[in-house]
Structures are given as C-alpha cells and as structure tokens.
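$ ./design --mode recover --in tokens.txt
reading tokens...
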C-alpha cells in the first residue's frame, strides 16, 4: 500500500484532512493508497515566506523542508501540503512550495484553499442554504470561521472541522470551488489516477 502524508497549518485540519483525503480517494476510485492518519502540522509562517510583502509570496524553505523530512521518515510515497490562501496568491505559492517539497520527495504537491479551509465547508452547504443565512460569495469572505458560526453555533475548528468535513459531497464541492477541484486533481495526480473519475 502507498502512503499519502499530508502537511497542514491549522490544528483543526490535523484531524479533518485525513478524512477529506479519504473521501477524495473514494470519489476517485483509487485503490492501493491510504492516508497517514497523523498529518504533519507546521505554522503558516513556516510554510509561507511572510517576511516578504504579499500577495505573491513564495514558500519558506525551512518549514517546508522540515515537514518533508518528517514525511520521508514516515516512508511517504507522496506528500500533499494544504495551506490557507488568506490574502496570498495560490498561483505563486503553490508551484514554488511544490518545487521545494520535491527536493526531498519527487511525488509532492502544494495546494491553497481559497481564503481558508472553512470556505470549503461553507461551499459544501450549497448556495441556497448559505443565502438563507445571508451568506453570499463565500470565497470573498475574510472570516469564514465567523460565517461558520451561523451554521454551527460555537464553531471551533478543533471541535467541529472533522464532523463538517465528513459531510462533504466531493463531486458537489468540486463543482462549487475551483480551489477544491485543484485539491482533488492534485490527489489524483499524486496517486496516478484520472481526476475525472467519479
């Protein structure tokens, strides 16, 4: 079995991302791969070079290479790094971070969630459900966690992200979010399977 190791920035994603990747693997019909249940967490400042002005900031070597050494020590066959975009440029950071990752593990990719992980959770609810709460254009919301509290009272990433993630319909969310579709296509590429399966 091939091991996919994930690298994340947030505490909530540590539990949620293995579940999300499992849903994606099932959606793609991938066999012969499993997701390591313990993602490697690095703070955002170790993954994005915040010493430089935004929005076109590259990855940060020290944190990315530290995470990749840990991934390699787990005998990863592939590594996937997910980082919140916030106000950065995914088209700049993603390829740069991927290149840095590949120094230690050739089968590696970096992806940014537009704004933040919670944006995907919002979009997974559908526009009608969001509109009924006055939430429009989720990918433009600066504080998606606050918007999540309208759907899940008292929302906290470490408490609620996993249960919200388990309810994601991968095919539906792909149709709602280009960054999520990129996430799915990245997993497909790492596993050597067509992204249009499912």
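writing sequence...
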């Amino acid at each position: 079995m091939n091991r996919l190791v994930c690298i994340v920035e947030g505490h909530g994603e540590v539990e949620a991302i293995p579940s999300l990747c499992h849903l994606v693997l099932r959606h793609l019909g991938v066999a012969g791969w499993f997701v390591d249940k313990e993602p490697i967490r690095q703070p955002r400042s170790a993954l994005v070079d915040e010493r430089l002005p935004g929005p076109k900031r590259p990855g940060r070597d020290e944190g990315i290479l530290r995470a990749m050494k840990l991934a390699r020590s787990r005998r990863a066959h592939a590594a996937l790094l997910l980082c919140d975009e916030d106000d950065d440029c995914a088209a700049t950071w993603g390829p740069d971070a991927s290149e840095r990752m590949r120094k230690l593990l050739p089968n590696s990719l970096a992806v940014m969630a537009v704004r933040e992980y919670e944006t995907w959770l919002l979009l997974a609810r559908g526009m009608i459900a969001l509109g009924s709460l006055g939430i429009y254009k989720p990918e433009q919301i600066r504080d998606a966690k606050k918007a999540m509290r309208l759907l899940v009272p008292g929302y906290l990433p470490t408490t609620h992200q996993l249960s919200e993630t388990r309810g994601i319909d991968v095919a539906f969310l792909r149709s709602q979010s280009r960054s999520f579709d990129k996430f799915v296509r990245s997993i497909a590429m790492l596993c050597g399977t067509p992204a249009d399966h499912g």
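exit 0
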